[in-house]
């Protein structure tokens, strides 16, 4: 202690006398020593050339500010750097704000918005980012609507060796950084908050990475990192309550491609596409080697996911003590092996745990409440021929242990098919179920013993034991039974290695605040991503003929109707948010519009992060355009790798009529049409009031659009689902022709028209 006090006394004057310079940000500035940035708002645009579009060229990135050095601290002191002054919508944002190089560099209290990438660090050892706000940067427009999903909104993570996922932008991008610390940072209103490529031994904690349209945190080839105590809720896209449950590969946390030995603990990742999306990656799929293995996923809340609370596939992992409520799947662990799924609580899911083609997994001491299916195990008769994994690995469903779990009010606790050597043993408790076990295909060596079974009545219990898969066991009773020869023989179950990581001493309680909305009905996604409850919106709830029911949600405040179009009657014209209103549409109306004005005693924020002061009038609206076109669709087959120029000159092999052009084909679209290498020609004539309209065309593979004989959209090549849009002036009678082809695999064609 005495030595420490002497050291402190001698060193203090040096520290206190040091003068940290204050600087002013300018475009092209290089910072190479510790400094403080003058607090101000800096409008400095990045370079418009998109070096983040594939092929990504990080070497060509020209940041607005470069921080390069060793052992330096740059405190922005709340200064805000704002880019893309010529663009209002975030799908147009461009440039790189801050780039960091060097060693032991700390960046504090920065505010960055309006860029494609807010901060990029490449090859930095000992990077620290703290109390920074990288919100409201790039995010592409979404095209999925309430009733219909657009497949161009799906994300793709199959390749990232050349930083391909930067095409989606990011608040923070760390590449090849070791021992980084990211704490107390915020990133919302982006597509992605934090992306990490080739990063090891990082600590990411106490951050608010929520309400993004892609990923809260993404790991690629990144291992031995600690992701703890983070708020990563509402990182979601592609969900429409009551219509489709997709998520489109968005996630609170993504772990893929050889990312192993990570600790993911004490995070709140609810209301995201997947809570945790862990995928072995394309190299494992191609070779059967590697995987994202030995990650510990502990004590997280991954509830209310449109798809999976946790998806952990083609890998070996430990999943313990997590909470998943009201997901489609609580845990999807397809092709998992030697994984421990231990002491999780899964409530109200369609299927609590689903494992296809897994081996040697242990499901122990989990609690299942009010799920439709508890545990589902199965194997398909065939594997995809192009999966190297399936050709080189054992993909049977076998040797799982289901031990000491609690099933309460689970309608179908066990659903087991085409599996072998499954042990359901160790005092599992089944109570208040409808059907204890189902299975479409027989199993081999299924053992069901020493379990507690409490049905609704004796007739139901008798039905349980009449099921052939269960009666193969001997001397079954309803409580604590074993095999007749030795009912008290020790159970043969794997030894459990408990993993209970310590929380961080300064780690926050990452949980939704009391009173904050909970439930998938509160996932509201529009063209700019998930709704963040910081402003009022009108959400279409139900339709019944010409009657539409709306809910107004958001901060408490007063609303009134200022204008309506296409509406015959309305249940209320003013009130307080939240509210529910019903309108009757004019039966002949194609364009429905409700316009509201709103005031609140508190400040609110727009979807682009602009603050509306308390008491100031805020305008919002709801618009629905229901123009129906009578399409005549013709189908043609071809044999070449691409359609020949004369593909539409012959006689079609099939024809159909439709009032909407919205198709997704995984095989043959019509009788007589090939599953691959077919083309379509869709034609419609229509009348429309004079106005400016946006035409949206989504295609996979190629498509082109002609309006009144004039080509407007031409994407006649092989591509993944993509949406093109063009604004045109229309009025009166028009003719539209859309030609499309599929070269192989999945195909989609989607056309929409709406007023600008």
Q: What's the story with the biggest beta sheet?
A: 29 strands, parallel
Query: Low-confidence runs (pLDDT<50, min 5 residues)?
Result: 1-17, 474-488
Proportion of helical residues: under 10%
Please work out how many helical segments DSSP would assign: 5
**How big a fraction of the residues is strand?**
35-45%
> Could you say what the CATH architecture of the largest domain is?
3 Solenoid
Shape: globular
Structural class: mainly beta
Domain tally: 3
How many individual β-strands?
60
Q: Gap between N and C termini, in Å?
A: 72 Å
Radius of gyration: 29 Å
Q: State the CATH class of the largest domain.
A: Mainly Beta
Rounded mean pLDDT is 91
Query: Which fold name is given in CATH as the topology of the largest domain?
Result: Pectate Lyase C-like
Which terms would index this structure?
29-stranded parallel β-sheet, 5 helices, 756 residues, disordered N terminus, single chain, 5% helix, Pectate Lyase C-like, 60 strands, mainly beta
What would your notes on this structure say?
This protein has 5 helices and 60 strands. The protein is mainly β. The chain has 3 domains: 28-360 and 371-383, Pectate Lyase C-like, CATH 2.160.20; 533-625, Immunoglobulin-like (Sandwich), CATH 2.60.40; 631-755, Jelly Rolls. The longest helix is centred in the first third of the chain and has 16 residues, at 2-17. It is globular and about 70 Å long.
């Amino acid at each position: 202690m005495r030595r420490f006090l002497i050291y402190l006394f001698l060193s203090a004057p040096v520290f206190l006398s040091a003068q940290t310079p204050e600087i002013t940000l300018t475009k092209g500035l290089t910072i190479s020593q510790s400094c403080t940035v003058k607090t101000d708002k800096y409008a400095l645009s990045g370079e418009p050339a998109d070096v983040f579009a594939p092929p990504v060229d990080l070497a060509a990135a020209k940041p607005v500010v470069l921080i390069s050095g060793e052992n330096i601290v740059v405190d922005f002191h709340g200064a805000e750097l704002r880019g893309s002054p010529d663009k209002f919508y975030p799908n147009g944002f461009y440039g790189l704000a801050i780039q960091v190089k060097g060693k032991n560099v700390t960046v504090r209290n920065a505010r960055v918005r309006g860029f494609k990438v807010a901060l990029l660090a490449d090859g930095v050892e000992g990077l620290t980012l703290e109390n920074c706000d990288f919100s409201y940067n790039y995010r592409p427009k979404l095209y999925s609507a309430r009733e219909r999903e657009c497949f161009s909104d799906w994300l793709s993570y199959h390749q990232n060796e050349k930083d391909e996922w930067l095409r989606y932008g990011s608040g923070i991008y760390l590449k090849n950084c070791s021992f980084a610390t990211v704490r107390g940072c915020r990133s919302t209103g982006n597509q992605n908050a934090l992306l990490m490529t080739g990063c090891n031994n990082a600590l990411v904690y106490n951050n608010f990475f929520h309400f993004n349209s892609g990923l809260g945190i993404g790991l690629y080839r990144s291992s031995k990192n600690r992701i703890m105590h983070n708020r990563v809720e509402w990182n979601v896209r592609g969900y429409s309550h009551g219509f489709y449950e997709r998520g489109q590969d968005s996630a609170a946390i993504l772990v893929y491609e050889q990312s192993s030995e990570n600790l993911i603990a004490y995070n709140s990742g609810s209301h995201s596409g997947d809570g945790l999306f862990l995928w072995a990656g394309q190299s494992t799929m191609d070779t059967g080697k590697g995987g994202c293995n030995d990650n510990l996923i502990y004590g997280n809340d991954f509830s209310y996911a449109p798809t999976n609370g946790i998806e952990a596939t083609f890998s070996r992992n430990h999943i313990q003590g997590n909470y998943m409520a009201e997901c489609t799947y609580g845990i999807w662990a397809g092709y998992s092996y030697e994984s421990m799924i231990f002491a999780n609580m899964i409530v109200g899911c369609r299927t609590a745990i689903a494992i296809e083609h897994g081996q040697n997994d242990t499901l122990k001491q989990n609690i299942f409440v009010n799920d439709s299916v508890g545990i589902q195990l199965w194997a398909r008769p065939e594997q995809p021929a192009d999966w190297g994994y399936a050709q080189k690995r054992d993909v049977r469903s076998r040797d799982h242990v289901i031990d000491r779990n609690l099933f309460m009010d689970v309608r179908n606790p066990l659903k087991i098919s085409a599996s072998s050597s499954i042990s359901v043993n160790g005092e599992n408790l089944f109570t208040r179920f409808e059907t204890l076990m189902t299975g479409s295909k027989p199993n081999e060596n299924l053992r069901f013993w020493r379990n507690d079974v409490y049905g609704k009545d004796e007739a139901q219990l008798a039905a349980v034991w009449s099921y052939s898969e269960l009666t193969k066991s001997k001397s079954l009773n309803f409580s604590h039974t074993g095999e007749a020869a030795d009912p008290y023989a020790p159970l043969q179950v794997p030894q459990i290695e408990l993993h209970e990581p310590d929380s961080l001493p300064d780690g926050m309680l990452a949980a939704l605040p009391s009173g904050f909305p909970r439930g998938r009905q509160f996932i509201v996604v529009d063209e700019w991503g998930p709704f963040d409850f910081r402003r009022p919106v009108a959400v279409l709830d139900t339709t019944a003929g010409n009657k539409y029911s709306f809910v107004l949600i958001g901060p408490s405040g007063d609303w009134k109707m200022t204008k309506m179009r296409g509406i015959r009657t309305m249940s209320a014209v003013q009130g307080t948010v939240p509210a529910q209103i019903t309108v009757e549409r004019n039966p002949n109306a194609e364009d429905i519009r409700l316009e509201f004005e709103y005031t609140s005693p508190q400040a609110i924020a727009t979807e682009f992060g602009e603050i509306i002061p308390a008491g100031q009038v805020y305008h919002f609206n709801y618009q629905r355009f229901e123009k129906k076109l009578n399409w005549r669709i013709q189908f043609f087959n071809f044999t070449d790798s691409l359609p020949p120029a004369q593909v539409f000159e012959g006689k079609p092999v099939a024809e159909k009529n439709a009032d909407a052009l919205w198709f997704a084909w995984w095989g043959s679209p019509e009788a007589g049409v090939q599953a691959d290498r077919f083309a379509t020609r869709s034609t419609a004539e229509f009348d429309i009031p004079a106005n400016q309209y946006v035409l949206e065309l989504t295609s996979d593979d190629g498509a082109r659009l002609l309006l009144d004989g004039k080509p407007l959209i031409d994407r006649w090549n092989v591509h993944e689902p993509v949406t093109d849009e063009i604004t045109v002036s229309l009025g009166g009678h028009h003719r539209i022709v859309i030609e499309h082809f599929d070269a192989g695999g999945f195909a989609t064609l989607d056309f929409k028209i709406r007023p600008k």
